[in-house]
Amino acid sequence: MARSKLRPAGFDDLGLQRALSDRLLPFLVAAMAFLAALGLAGAFAAAGLAHHWQQGAEAALTIQVPDPGADSAAPGLSRLERVLALLRADPVVTDARPLTPGELDALLRPWLGTDAGRLALPLPAVIAVHLADPAAPLASLSSTLGAAAPGTLVESHGVWVRRLAALARSLQACAAVALLVVAAVAVAVVAVATHAGIAARREAIEIVHGLGAADGYIAARFAGRATRLAAIGAAAGALAALPVLLTLAGLAAPFGGLAAPETEPSVLAPAGLPILLWLALPLLPLIAAAIGYLTAQVTVRSWLRRLP
Amino acid sequence: MIRFEHVGLSYPAPGRQPPASVLRDLSFAVPEGAFRWLLGPSGAGKTSLLRLMYLAARPTEGSLTLLGTEIARAGRRQLPGLRRRIGVVFQDFRLLPHLSAFDNVALPLRIGGRPEGQIRADVAEMLRWVGLAGKLESPPETLSGGEQQRVAIARAVITRPRLLLADEPTGNLDEAQAERLMRLLHELVRLGTTVVVATHNEALVARHAAPALRLDHGRLVTHG
After folding, report:
1. Cβ neighbours of residue B140 closer than 8 Å, sequence gap 6 or more
2. What domains are defined for chain A?
3. Out of A9, A204, A214, closest to residue B96 by CB
4. If you average pLDDT over every residue of chain A, what do you get?
5. Would you call A306 an interface residue with chain B, using a CB distance cutoff of 8 Å?
């Protein structure tokens, strides 16, 4: 007598290995996971930039002192020295440092080229100032400096930082919406695939139902299959996204470097990707599996309600 | 066990046409452990009556009580448990083509939650009893009509159901196999199973005299 093998738990008695294709559904979920990985990267990058800008520049000022070497009203002090003395005496100012000629050249190089230092232009001195309190009122400081060295300009970075932060937040919101759309499309893909599987196995479902299978028994078969396929697809999609993300991180590295990377070592990880992204990527297959499981359960149970 | 009280069954008709009535005003009872033939010409409503009894349809009129449960009042969640106590042999076998003979017969046990380790011996014994010991792993498409019918019979009785319904169960069996099946059905009746067999086989009915439900045009014309 032939000896029949023991069947594993969740044995495929509905024949779903054929009915729920192991090609189309994983491929579509992989595409969704790929897009989700890009969306996550965008969200994390925008969040990182917003954080970076707010932390690094909100409390910063740039002060331009025209004709810095000329004498000021204070005896023995040039206009630049007078302004620096007033700044360093102000308790709100934590640091005031005039940019070196080399730093000025670097700032002007994009506009004036490498010969900026040799041009006979009356360049102002530029002082980088950091404040103890980003919200400190600047009007009195500005008028004090203007009185000491007429023509001095005080430019707060805060306004630009707030605008850039708002831009970053809207980019984050766009990325979040994109992720929601990707999730909704993934739900739709699994639902359509499940409906196709139901149509292909309708007779088998009705037989099993007639033999006394509860809705949960039948739905579990579909959910198990959809969960596996979605997880496999999402894992493939996340892996496929990784080289793209690493390439993008490489391209964006100069911008990150300009944004003072040494101030935030914790948000960067190997290969320049945010560490939160490294944590989120392995979650994509789990999230896809959950979407597959829940969508298949709901779809099958809804369909089964038409049976007595 | 089975109680029909003025039961009617109608199927929705397309468009605005009135529902098609296939069973009308059926009232009868079949006690536990009884055998009944279900007779009548083609189109008389035998299959629809069986569908009511194996819970593939609910009555659109009247009251049906099966295994102590009033079907009209039963919640949908109660029905799977009831179905697991009912064995059915379909005229067209209704085997799952992607499963072997063994797995088709094991299916009701798996649905009922029987541990896998306890299934093998029972299923193998049942298939041996119906003469298919050498075809455990054969898919239905490789079996003859008679062999498929025997697999369907094995699947229907493997759970020792309280109610066994059979629609033309001997249609593809030779005379010896049909007699063997009838001995099995009578053995089940002796053990307390209620058995209802729909057939056109008058010779078989004559050889195994038993009370009959006779239908004609959806109405019960003879009971007993």
Report:
1. B93, B95, B96, B97, B99, B101, B104, B148, B151
2. 16-55+161-304 (no CATH), 59-156 (3.30.70.3040)
3. A204
4. 83
5. no
